[in-house]
Each structure stands twice: as C-alpha cells, then as structure tokens.
Amino acid sequence: MIRKDKPQKTLILGSGALQIGQAGEFDYSGSQAIKALKQDGVNTVLINPNIATIQTSEHLADKVYFLPVNAEYVERIIEKEKPDSILLGVGGQTALNVGVELFKTGVYKKYDIKVLGTPVESIMNTEDRLLFNQKVTEIGLKVAVSKPVSTVEEAVGAARSIGFPVMCRIAYALGGLGSGIVNSENELIEKAIRAFAFTNQILIEESLYGWKEVEYEIVRDKFNNCITVCSMENLDPMGIHTGDSIVVAPVQTLSATENFKLRSIGIKLIRHLGIIGECNIQYALNPKSDDYRIIEVNARLSRSSALASKATGYPLAFIATKLALGYALNEVENIITQETSACFEPSLDYIAVKFPRWDLQKFRQVSTLLGSEMKSVGEVMSLGRSFEEAIQKAIRMLDLGFSGLVCNDLEFENLEEEIKKPTDRRLFAVTQALRNGYSVEKVHELSKITEWFLYKIKNIIKIEKLLENYNLENLPNELLKEAKQKGFSDKQIAWLIHSTESKVRVKRKIVGIIPSVKQIDTMAAEFPAKTNYLYLTYNGDEDDVKLSEENQIIVLGSGTYRIGSSVEFDWCGVNTVLTLSDLKYKPIMINYNPETVSTDYDICHKLYFEELTLERVLDICEKENPEGVIVSMGGQIPNNLSTKLHEAGIKILGTSPEQIDNAENRHKFSRILDKVGVDQPAWSELTDLADAKKFSSSVGYPVLIRPSYVLSGAAMSIVLSENELEEYLKKASDISKEHPVVISKFITEAREIEVDAVSQNGNLFCYAIAEHVENAGVHSGDATIVFPPQRTYLETVRRVKLITKRIAQELKITGPFNIQFIAKDNDVKVIECNLRASRSFPFVSKVLKINFIDIATRLIMNILLPPFRSSAFDLDYVGVKAPMFSFTRLKGSDPVLGVEMASTGEVACLGDDFDEAFLKSLVSTGINIKPKSILLSTGTIKNKTVFLKEARLLNDLGIKLFATVGTANFLKENNISVESLRWSSPEENSEVLSVIKNKSVDLVINIPRDDEMKSLENDYIIRRKAVDLNISLITNIEFARRYVKAIYKYSTGKLSVKSWDEYL
Amino acid sequence: MAEKQKAILILEDGLEFSGYSFGAKRNTNGEVVFNTGMVGYPETLTDPSYNGQIVVLTYPLIGNYGIPKNYSENNISTTFESDKIHARGLIVSDYSENYSHWNAEMSLSSWMEKQNIPGIYGIDTRKLTKRLREYGVMLGKIVVDPTSNIHFEDPNKSNLVAEVSVKTILRTPKPGKRIVLVDCGAKNSIIHAFLRRNIGVIRVPYDYDFLLEDVEGIVISNGPGDPKICTKTIDNVRRALKGNIPILGICLGCQIMALAAGGDTYKLKYGHRGQNQPCNESGTKRCYITSQNHGYAIRTDSLPEDWREWFQNDNDGTNEGIIHISKPFFGAQFHPEASPGPDDTEFIFDMFVRALR
After folding, report:
1. φ and ψ at A926, to 5 degrees?
2. A331 contact residues in B (CB cutoff 8 A)
C-alpha cells in the first residue's frame, strides 16, 4: 500500500519495569505496535528490560534487548543496530523522556534516524508546561492560570499572587509525581524543595478543585484527518489523579453541545500541536457553567488510551502505529469489525467503568489520602448496560473481598471526613452516607461527585433495602431480576435474604433469570461485526454470538495487577492461549484487566471481559460448555477458584483440585511433606496468646507470624522476642478460635532458593532452580533473583531437585508449579509450594529460551513430549531479576524490604557473569551504579563488620564516603576514610539530612537495625528523604555487598550491549 | 417516577419486547429506526426528519443530563432543532429519571409527557437494533394502554414533508446577502449556520416556488421520508438548476437535488442515523466524521454526466454528497450543521457562502 520513505528497521522503546503510574498498559501498546510494524514488513528492534512482558516474547520483535531504557543504552544500541527510525510513543513516559533527551543531544541527526509519528518538537511542546500553555493560548483556547517558577522563593511569590490553594505541578512526571494541591506556604515550600530535586522548573497554577474531569482520546494522521475515539468522565472530581479516579466511558453527564465542543477544541489543539498518531487530552469542566480548562495533552499512548482501547474495542496502539508509518486513517482496516473503516468514532452500547486498585495496606506509615499523585497499582474495567451493574461488577473485580458496592462489612468512624478527604474507601463511605439518609445534595457538596452518579448509587441502595424484606421462598422474581440488572451478585442477594449463594443461583436459574452474552463491536450493532470481544449483562435477553462450540477451553486470567501479581501472569495466560490455538483448540480467556495483552482482540478465540468470581465463571461455563478450565496460569485468583469450580462439576484441566487443596492447606501439605520425608521449618497454628508464646519460645526466636485476620498494618511479620510477639498480636492482629495465627520458626542467615517446574502425571518434566541474592526474610517478590544459581552448593541443588521430584510425584502434578526452599549449610527445607505458574516463569523461560508455559499447556492437554537433555539447562550466561519499587509515590511509606511484598514491578537482564547481569538490572530499576559519594549507615555491629571489606573497596574506588556517627567511628577505627555526619535537633538541620537534601550523595546504603526505637526512627527519615529526593537507596546487607563488588569489578569496563539471541 | 407502568413494543414481524412506560402514557405507532449517537437526545427528538418514526437509541443510559433550558437567538431556538418533538416515540434501555446538569430544566420523561410523546424503557435495544439491521426498518407500535387499540401505520405513505414544513414564508432581518431555505423539515441549526455568517434567511414552504424570491443562494433542507414524494420541490429545483444561483442541498435536500438533476434514489435497508459516519472526500485522503439521519440514498451511478460523487461513506460505500462539475451546485447527504454531532464538515457552509454572489 505504501509508500515512499517507509522505514526498513525501527527501534522501539519499551517502558521498563512496572511502577505506579506506568504499568502493564505499555505491554499492550508495545505489542500492538510491533504487530503493526511487522505487518508492513518493518524489521523491529525492541529495548525493554521488563522480561515478563509479551512484547519481549520470541514471536514478536525481530530483536530484543533486555537493557535499561535510558539515553546511554539506547544510543549504544542505535550505534550497533543502525535502525533508520525510532518509535517513542508506546513506552510510556520513560520512552518519551529518553526520546526527547536523544533529540536534544543530537543522536537522531548523528545516526540519521527518523522519529516515527509525533515529531519531538511537538512532544516537547506538550511536556513543558510553559510551552504548552503558550501553544494552547495562541489559538484562543483556555488553560488554568499558571506560572512557571524555578526557585522556592519564586514559587511562594507566584502562589501568593494566584492565592491559596494552588496547584503545584511538575513537568516530566510519571503519573503526576510530586504534583498536588497546596493549601499553605509551608506546605508549598516542602513540596517545592522535593520537586526541584527532579526538575528545575515547576508550575504554580490556579486550583480547579471540584471541577469535573473529562478526557478524550484523539487520533490524527499526517493528512490532517482527526477523530476522537473515546470520551471518558471521571466520577471523582479534579484534584484526584485520573489514575486514582473511578472513570466511566463514554461521558455520561455532558450534553451533546458540551461534548462536541470539547471534541472540536481537542481536535483544534491536536492539529495545532502537530501530533501524528494517538494522544490524550484532559479537561476540567466547571460544573456550574460551560467553562473549561485544558489540563494536559499526553502525546503518546497512555494508561487512558489503553483503557479507551479496551472500553471501545478500537485498537488504538495498532492504528496509531500505522499512522506513524504514514498511512491515512481511512487506509487502515478496522481489524475489529473487519467490515468498516478505522476512520470512525466508536459508538458504544454499554458503559465501561474503570476502578483503581490500591494496595496501601501493604506499606507501613503510608498516607491513604488520595490527591494529585497517583497511588494505585492496578485497575479493573467492567462492562454493563447500566451504571449500577457496571460499578458493582467493578468493585467485585478488585478482588479485595468486597461483594459489590453494598453488602460489605465496613465501618466508618467519621463519614463526613471520609467523604470530604478521599481515600481508597471513599465510594463506600458515600454509599453508607446515602444509606444513612444523607441527601444527594449533601453528599455532592462534600464529595463534589456529580449528582447523577449518586442517584445511581441510591438505586442500588433501594434494591438492597427491598431485598431485606424477603427470604429465598417469598422473593418475587421481578425483584430478583431487577437486583441482577442492578449488578447484585448471588452472594449479595444471599447475604440480604439470609440464604446461600448456591441456593440463590438455583432459584434464579429455575425462573430463567440468566445473563446474556453481548459483543463489543465498536459500532453499537449498526453493522455485523466479527468481534470475539464479549461481556455478560442482565440488561438484555439475547446472546450475540454462537455459544457452546466444539473444542473450547477456558483459561482464567489474572485479574487486576496488584502487588504480588502482575504482568508475569498475563504472559503465562497469553502463552497458554497461544499454545491452545496451536493445538487447534478454541481458547476462551476470562479477564477484566484493561492493561493486559490477554484482553487484546487478536489473542484468543473468545474473550470474556468479565469477573473472575465463581458465579461469573459458572455462568460462562454454562453458556459455553468448554471441555475444561485451566486455572494454573493466572496466579492466585484462578487457583482459589479451582475447588469451588470442581465442586460445581466443572472439569479442571491439569493438576486435580484435590491436590491443589493439598498444597494450599497448610495442615494437609505438612502431612504430605512428612510422608515423603521432606523437611520444613517448625510451625503451628495457634488460637491464643499463651500458646503462641509457648510455641515461639520452644522453637526459639525469631519467628514468622501470619495472622488470618488483619486489623492494621502489614499482615506478616518477623518478631524477635516475646515482648514483640505480644505487642504484635495485641496491636496488629486478632488471635482467636475464629482467627488463628500461624507461627513458624524463622531461620536466620539462610539462603532462599526457588524452583519453577512443569510435570505430567507426577513426572517432573523440566525445572529451573534460582537463588536469591538477599537472605531469607525478604519476600521472594522483592528479592533479587539469580538464574542459573551461582553460589548454591551442588549438593543443595541436588537435594532441591530430589525434593521437587518427590513432591511432583506425591501431588500427581500436571502443569506448572513452584516450590520455595530455604537452605543453610546444605540443609534444605520447603517453605511454600504453589501448584500453579509463578511470578518467575517468564524470567526462567526467557533466560533458558525454553517456554515453560508452552510445555505446561501441552502436558496439561495430554500431549507426550520428548524429554529434554540436561544440557539444555546448562548456560554460559546469567540472568538477574531485580525488583522495582514505587516508594517515591507512596508518601510516608518506609522504603524497606520485609516479609510482605512491596515492589510493583521487576526487570531482568542477561550478562556474561553475575556482576554484569546484576548491574544492568540495577540500572534498569534506576539505581546509580557510578556513585561519586555514598552515605553509609550499616546498622548492627555484625553488619558493620561484614561490610568492612566492601567499604574498603569503595575507598579504593575513590568514592567519597559519608556515614552516620556509629558507622563512621567503626570505619575510621578500621582505617577507612569517611566523613562523619551528626544528627542534631531540630532534625531537619542535621548534617545527615542536609547531605541528602543538597544531593551531595548519589547513593544511600542504610541497613535497618532491629533495636533502639530512636535510631529506627532516624533510619526511617534517612530512607524516606533519599527516596523523596530520588537518590538511590539500598537497605539489604547482602545486596549492598554484591553491589559494591560488582561496581568494583566493572569500574573500568563497560557493560556489554548484547541482544537476547546473542546469548547462546 | 412513581410505580413502574408496563409497556410493550410490538414490531410488524410479530416480535414483542416488554418494558416500562415513560413520557406520555399513550400508545403510538410509526417506523422504527435506530440511532447510534451516544448523546444529543433533545436535538435528535426535535429533528423534523424523524417525523413519523419511533426512535431507538442504541446507547443504553438515556436521560442523564435532563432537558436543557430553551435558549434562542433571533427568536429561533438554539437548544432544540424545532419547536417540538417530531419523533413519534422513543425506545431506550436504561432511562434515568434523575438527571444532573447545570443547565437542565426538567427530566426527559416530563418533557415528553408535556409534548404527549410516549417512550418505553427496559428493553434489549441491542437485540432490537440487530433485528432492524437484519430485516431492515420495520413498522412498530408502543402499547402503554392495552385497552385501546392501535394499528401499524406506514408513515412513508403520507407526505411527511408537508407535515413539518412551514406553512408561511418567514424572513429573518436582512443584514446583507440572503438565501432562500426551502423548508422540507429544516433543523434550526441550518438557519443559525447562515445567520452566524451574516446571511439572511427566507424560509419558505417545501412546495413554494422559491424562484420568485430575489436571493443570492438556494438551500434545500433536510427532511423526513422518501424524497420522491416531494415532486413539487423537485420540479422547482430542476428549474433552478438551469440557472446559476448557488444551490446547497442537505440530506433530503441533497437527494431532491439529485432527482432534479436526473439521478435516482433508493431506500436503504436500515439507513444511517448517528454521529460517527465516516465520509471520504473524493479525490483526497480526507475523511470526515459526520452526523447523519437518512433512510434513503442517491444512486451514484445514476448521476448525469455533469455531476460527480463528492463524498462516499467509508463504511458501506454509499453516496454521501454530490457536486456539479462547473456550476456552484452541491449537496451533502450528512448534516454539516451537526447538532448533535461533530462539526468536521461545517466548512461546507463556508464554501457555499463564498459562492454567493
């Protein structure tokens, strides 16, 4: 079709590790972009250290580099690969920033590289607030009054002239980092200091608190054709980051005039800016007039565009890439309908609701208040034909134990406060207030939520109250139907009429109240579409598609990304589906996460954008009659459904649900380990404090506590003494017959080892053993993982393998599984076993270049495969997986590692030895590996001693060392040159903090100690300051030691730039 | 609303949908057509082109922003497309009696009740739309009061244009140049489009001999039903085409122009009604998103020598506009005045105004 100037070879920048503000949506956009380029015969080179992504799979880009997405590495790859073009728009803010930097340093000119899509000048015009405001106002459009400032004093001056409250906005930010509404001068000063650590310009703006926030996704080609693909309205008003807002698509409460006015304004601006491809524009709307402000334009694929793409069915990233190649909109086929043009604006005949998922309870000391800095770690999207239906579905999808908007066990101490000051619980507080009789006007006044949404919530409450008057026998069919149409689950109805979920299900099926299957076709049924994109609704009475086809297999997806479960399980799900298709099955995916590739239009035979609840999965099974359901690929949600689905008569493929239960149930699993002669740390389940004390002292402290019911704070904890045990059990948890506590012996200074493996009928087929850099005590999701192991004794490896074999045999495992071990002096104990794919499956699969999920799927489908030769597991290179933390965004949280997982993402890099792979992965997570100065505070005497050798290496490297008094004294005694820094009162003026504040250090190594409250508090302040000021932080002693050795080793040499296929 | 009152929608093929009544509590009949626009129910319902039709809105959540206050300029409403609801009934899935909007005055149901127009909600509008797509538009009736009988009635057999056209000539104050607007059921936005460009409008009945007026341009408006029924208008336009006064046809007006030029029109299976119709401009790479509402179309291959296809629908390839090769005559099948809809093609008014001598 085209074209002159078509690129031959394109470099694509990925987005790196998942973090708050930049998550799985860029796997979706990158993957679609690669497909769009490949379809045009363009050679593709991808750089992305996020090894768990689909886009870094073998079958997509022609070449993959698991390397940091920063200017240095991108330039080195350009030098090596000599691409003729680069794509910046599909790797989030990370890719965009790097792209701009390369432009400024003249790299594109030097290597004659064409930037595809939106020109860099246009990107800069959208990124720099001052330039942006100029661009907007020069065509007569409105932005918020805004003053750029570059010092704290200027900031205060600007704020005074605008008048508090003001919005303090920071350019070049991921998810609005640092931005926020500031009410007072002191608050502003604090924020400005933080902000200037990241940038030399911030903006002081008029506050638009309480205005409506709406967004449009706009697409433009180089022929000036311009369309708006989707409009979205935030339920939460301005002031709450859109990533933390509940969002509906399309807009609900704007008139046609307003809607099309905003469309025209957006198109006018996008044409003026010269964007080619896709962008997102955000508006604030005065709720009492037709006044508006343009908030920002994101000249790239974004979280919102991923959402818009899934909400409408319009493949934005794919089409944006085609436009970047030079196609006109009306030359691109609409791959969803395969009938109509890509140059049209989707018409929806349903409502989509996005709800953010927060994991704030995982962090100590974090503020739960929502504001203009994003805090959520994932999101869900629900579809329905009424708002009530969609919002209740969305809340269930969060997988936080809520059964919908109502019927939850929640209590609020001060409703008005909870509504006025938004937290992750606000919508429930709003519901409670309306239930308690607050008027819609009053709740609107407090929350600034548009009344229409509140009326809808009232409709749900009305049904809730009606249902309470009935029992299962006398419940009228009409009310039951209305409840289902308003999104009530069988469980909610059962709760209200004092029955059970299964009885409600039976009753409604008898009277014929079942959901209908509807298609998402982008055009409201105007033309027949071939889309496989489906959802269920009770607001309808006809199924759109052919059901119960032959050879269908259901694969349960992983649901919302949260801490502990993210893109890696999407990789597993997608690979399962691809293998099933390859085996000529018709795979059906159930998932509801708009950030995923598994919910893309071209992945499976049918996609149900639906809840992963028992009720919904059964509904789909009853509609589709699949040959079976695969529950082992989507992490814990599907795993937890296995027994219930099995009991409901659904065939579970792979390891049997009885065996899954045997592994999940602590008592049963313990008996099995005893039976096969495998050791485990001593543990006991206890129901009162006295027993807990008795058991703990008998096994000896420290012990690990796992409560079954959490009052506040982190769920799991290590306690060192009886005092601590008592304090913990009294404060953080509840111990009783109903809520037992599991206590196990915590083995100190032990190594952690993991096995990812695949079996068939109990025979171990393939396995990968990996070791942690950190000692046991750091959650495996936060640990730095080395594969193949470099420091584990052969004997240990042999034992691990033997135990794995025995467990596989005993549990008759078919499919993927993961076992975690603890090893000390060749003594190996099992700490956990999951009969499902684990977080590290993509990592080991990609390092080994053996796709464990593909194998597992084939074995699950009873295919016999030839065994591997063991040489396949013998590697000449090393892979290191490192965690990515988002502490910067989580104000107040203590950035320290513990037994509860805290990382939001991960990267993995390859190297010729451990140190190289390790350093590459550190750079990929933003850790400075060329520090000129380091602040040390190495905790206990023992750790100080252990670190001595490394401190000396730092001296040898000529790195300036600072240390807190204790550490400094110790180092000086050992002839290490170091500058001692004091704590003084007030703390803010302490020497320790001023070196951080002035950024006189490039790295902080702060190893927490377990005693002395005061020093604990000081340590926390050091860590927090470092994180707030974007200074690299290391808090684990083993990690710190390996870090120093690695930078010492590579102090003169460069880390290699090698693509995945160059590691043989 | 108080107690929910049941209502039934019956299609001529016998299919029934039961739902609940809103708006006026009476029965109605007409041609059932669907519209895929997601906003703009006040504008849509007052568009005279819907005369004789029962409208299905495919977007399920309707009524959310209520009905706005009626503002006017030059005594012509800028809020609504005419003085009343022209659709005979409204079919939606999920109706919101509670609305919220700073500019709202009443709920959709109250407004329809005032204007004596019935509605039905709580039905599977997607199923209905698919039915209409597969079988073509059908006659239907909404039965709210089962005790009174109502039959199916084909509105296309009556002169729908005559029902909605002005009965007398209306002249706006003359600021400068003037056009005659042949009112086949003109939307107010068309009049505003000229007034805002300082062009006076003489609005005449559809069958009036507009050549009697001394004007710089002629506009044939949109309107309901089959263009072939407007024989008088076609004759008048045929005579106008012999002259050189610029002529613009919009929607039905465009079809009338084609018929007058010697071309042919036909009934589409289920028409184009919505705000997202892509139209390619012939000979360019430009594609515009347009607002549409028509059940008939021009047969492109029937156009005489000196006419060209100007726009083409990018979805189904049907004709979306025609242009004369030498004279200032052109017409658009879509609505350049939008309302409700995107304003991508407003330039057509500018083109026309530039052509006025």
Report:
1. 90, 10
2. 285
What whole-number distance in Å separates Cα of residue A68 and Cα of residue A77?
Answer: 11
B59, B287, B343 ranked by CB distance to A348: nearest: B59
Q: Is-contact A517 A545, C-beta < 8 A?
A: yes
User: Six-digit token pair at A1004?
Assistant: 């902080």
* Cross-chain Cβ contact A542/B278 below 8 Å: no
Q: Which of A20, A678, A754, A623 is nearest to A359 (CA)?
A: A20
- By C-alpha distance, which of A117, A307, A144, A288 is closest to A215? A307
Q: Which domains does chain A have, with CATH numbers?
A: 9-116 (3.40.50.20), 118-144+208-346 (3.30.470.20), 145-207 (3.30.1490.20), 398-513 (1.10.1030.10), 517-652 (3.40.50.20), 682-745 (3.30.1490.20), 928-1049 (3.40.50.1380)
CB–CB contact A518 B126 (8 Å): yes
Over residues A816-849, the pLDDT tens digits come to 999 999 999 889 999 999 999 999 999 999 999 9
Nearest to B124 among A290, A347, A540 (CB): A540
Q: Residue B332: how many CA atoms within 13 Å on its side-chain side?
A: 26
Dihedral over Cα of A241, A247, A250, A251: its sign? negative
Return the SS3 of A898: coil
Strands A827-834 and A815-824: antiparallel
Contact A1032, A927 (CB under 8 A): yes
In the CATH scheme, what is the code of domain B6-157? 3.50.30.20
Amino acid at A757: A
Would you call B119 helix, strand, or coil by DSSP?
strand
- d(C-alpha A20, C-alpha A294), whole Å: 24
B336 touches chain A (CB under 8 A): no
| Beta bridge mates, A882 | A907
- Point out the residue among B60, B278, B285 whose CB comes nearest to the CB of A539: B60
Measured at the alpha carbon of residue A566, what is the angle toward residues A578 and A378, in degrees to the nearest 5? Answer: 120
Q: What are phi and psi of A754, to 5 degrees?
A: -125, 150
* Cα-based distances in Å from A265 to A227, A294, A301, A565, B342: 12, 9, 20, 40, 11
CB contact under 8 A, B342 and A542: no
In angstroms, rounded to a whole number, what is the distance separating the alpha carbons of residues A972 and A950? 14
Say how far apart CA A611 and CA B23 lie, in whole Å. Answer: 36
Is the ipTM here above 0.90? yes
CB distance A584 to A620 below 8 Å? no
Nearest to B170 by CA among B188, B155, B150: B188
The answer to whether residue B337 is catalytic is: yes
The DSSP symbol for A744 reads E
User: Quick check: B286 contacting A, CB < 8 Å?
Assistant: yes
Work out the pLDDT band at A171, boundaries 50, 70, 90. Answer: low
Identical fold between B6-157 and B160-355: no
Break chain B into its structural domains and give their ranges: 6-157, 160-355
pTM value is: 0.95
The two beta strands, B287-299 and B307-313, are: unpaired
| Integer-rounded Cα radius of gyration of chain A | 28
CATH code linked to domain B160-355:
3.40.50.880
Question: Catalytic annotation on B251?
Answer: yes
pLDDT tens per residue across span A457-508: 999 999 999 999 999 999 999 999 999 999 999 999 999 999 999 999 999 9
Condensed to tens digits (0 to 9), the pLDDT of residues A747-766 reads 989 999 999 999 999 999 99
Sign of CA dihedral A535, A536, A541, A542: positive
Pure H helices in A840-913: 841-848, 852-860
CA–CA separation, A911 vs A1058, rounded Å? 8
**What is the DSSP-derived secondary structure letter of residue A59?**
T
Q: CA nearest A878: which of A775, A757, A792, A804? A: A792
Q: A248 — phi, psi (to 5°)?
A: -115, 150
